[in-house]
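Let us walk through a complete example step by step. Step one is to write down the protein sequence. Step two is to encode the small molecule, zinc ion, as a SMILES string so that its atoms and bonds are unambiguous. Step three, shown after the inputs, is the structure prediction itself.
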Amino acid sequence: METAIRATSEIVRDYSRLFVNRGAYTLQSLRPHPESGRHCYFRPKAKGEGGELSLTAATIRRHLEGELTIGLYAINPSTQRSKWVAIDADYAGAMEDLLKLQYFLQEDKVEAALEMSKRGGHLWIFMERPALARECRIYIHNLALKLGVRIRGAGLAEGIEIFPKHDELGAGEFGNAIRGPLGIHRGANRRYWFYAADYDLGKQIAYLNRLRKLSEDQLQGFITGKTMPPEFDRKPSSSDNAAPFVHASGREFRILDHVGKVRKVGRNYVTQCPSCAEAGQDRSGDNLAISIEDPRKYICWAGCTKEMIRRAVGCPIPVRRSA
Ligand SMILES: [Zn+2]
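Step three: the predicted structure of the complex.
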């Protein structure tokens, strides 16, 4: 384990300017989950009855110094924009795909920074000014399809994941977070660096500062006449709208009807949490535990609420109308 990496206030400020889109963030658990052995991410709450915590310079410094590990959201909900696009790849052949993307981005005069990861890597593109998530997504999806780089989702279990994963967020939504670069990955217990600079916090940040940033004009030039490939065109989820949930059938909601393959672990079935899966998490498929004895009881170890899980499977809990 490395020791005594110090993040100056300039480094923290630059990091925030490069990466932070909104106050909300996630934290990687310091201890592995007792059953899965994985380090999950959760949204930190203030002590007591407090609401959600907002990212501060002090928290970023602790992340960079390796004391804790944050996840960063891709979209600022007040503008539907992001300061960056991150392409996550972690399958066999992932690195070839990322290098291919990096090469062809360079042909477009877009400098992308390649970050190591536990498996594969993350490729980061920074915007001169925050760009519309929708436009970023149109550009990268079309580029990947043109290059024959597989994109996860739309029936493919393996492929790159493109953050932002949504065109826009509805009220109260967060979208997806990605591990904040340059911190310690709790699962691997090590720090992952960007390849193209010395393994030193100051030099890494200086490298990221120097990268040519993508301008809005350039981006709009790339996507002129292009649309989102239909198979990846995710409609914004409308959690606030009354979902067509018909209760009249009298049939009870059964979570087992809505999840994939389950395994028996002790007194529970274990499977992928639909809500985590929607967020691109729980890849090892073991966050959701369902009681074998009483399958009406289920819990997500990463902290998804029953409301979140029900919404994710398309059966939101009906809102009771007050008389
Ligand atoms: Zn979950």
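Step four is interpretation. Residues 26 and 123 are 20 Å apart (CA to CA).
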